[in-house]
Each structure stands twice: as C-alpha cells, then as structure tokens.
Amino acid sequence: xxxxxxxxxxxxxxxxTVAKLVGKEMNLLNIDTGAMYRCASLYMIKNKISLDNLNKxxxxxxxxxxxxxxxxGTERFYLDDEDVTNEIRQKSVNExxxxxxxIPIVRERMVEIQRQMGKSTDVIMEGRDIGTNVFPNxxxxxxxxxxxxxxxxxRVKQNLENGICIDYDEILANIKYRDNNxxxxxxxxxxxxxxxxxIDTTSLSIEEVxxxxxxxxxxxxxx
Length: 223
What we know:
The protein is an alpha/beta fold and 223 residues long. 50% of the residues lie in helices and 17% in strands. The chain has one domain (4-212): P-loop containing nucleotide triphosphate hydrolases (Rossmann fold).
C-alpha cells in the first residue's frame, strides 16, 4: 500500500480545494471522489435512468468510463471521453448526487476503483468515508468541517467562478439536506474516524488549512 492521506467532511467544507493544493505541494495524486459520483449522476440523467432502477444502474456500472486528468495544470473530469467538468456542477446533478452516492452497488464500484488507485501511487483522497471505509488504514486521516452557512457561501462563489448561478438559500437548503442524508445513510455514513484529526475551517483561509495539513504530513513522514 502506498502513502495515503484521507480527507473526509461534509459538502463545502473545503475538501476538494485543499486536497488539490496539498496534493500538488506534497506530490500526492489527488483523487476527487465526489466528482466520480457526480459523473455517475450525470450519466443517469443523460440516459434517463431512475434512482430505483437497479438493473439499469448495474448495467451502467459495467461500462461507464470515468477519468480524472490534469490538463495544463487544471483537473478535468471525463465521462466516456467527454469533458464534463462544468456539467457535473449543474443544479440537476446537485439534486441527485447525494442519493446516487447512497446506492450500494454504485458505492461498491466506486470504492473498488478508488482502492485500485491507491495501491501503487501515493494519494490524497477526499470524500465522506475515505478514512472510515475506503482506506481505514490510511497513514493520515483528516476531518474538515465548517458551518452550513459558510459552506453555502463557498459553494455560491465556486459556482459563479464556473459560470453557474444558483440562489444562496437554495444551496444552503441543499447542503443541510445532504448533511442529514450523508450522516444518516445506511451505506458508509459521513462520520469522523476515531483517529482522524479534526479541523474546523469556518474562519480559516484555504492557505491556513493547507499549511496545517502539510505540516501534519511532514511530521508523519519524518517519524
């Protein structure tokens, strides 16, 4: 097993941005698990597969191709060879991604892919169950958190940067819904691993959070 850094936390806590920046600084492959579920959700929308049609979902998982590539310093996501980086952030995907990620066969398949990635390459991976389920023996486990209001503000800003305009109140409601859904899920619920380091990012800048995690990684590698 390679060196694994697992970052868990609720939607909008800064996991994706932090994992990307820390990965670049510490030469770790950053695998965006949330984007993987978003790609699966987009596939279901495009192919009109309902959430309760497990037979079609099972067929989808046999053939779906999800890739993450670094293109000129930017992480891009491809669904069956099509760049869907912006599409997977659209409102329609936001509305079902949490439910899709709770479908057992979807989660099982994604976890298989994630574990395969972590076998031979040093990685930093973020999600809701990386330290508790995907890599329970990760070298470092971090749990990032922030208030729902702060997370909604961040999501609004992120969407605007991607040319997507969604009302703040709508995003806040979606975040609170996802929090409840993720924490009460019967399939790999969101929770802090017992040996995870808790970091509240509400009043911290991205740079401050990254510095904390980089120092944790350096200390671990030295000891």
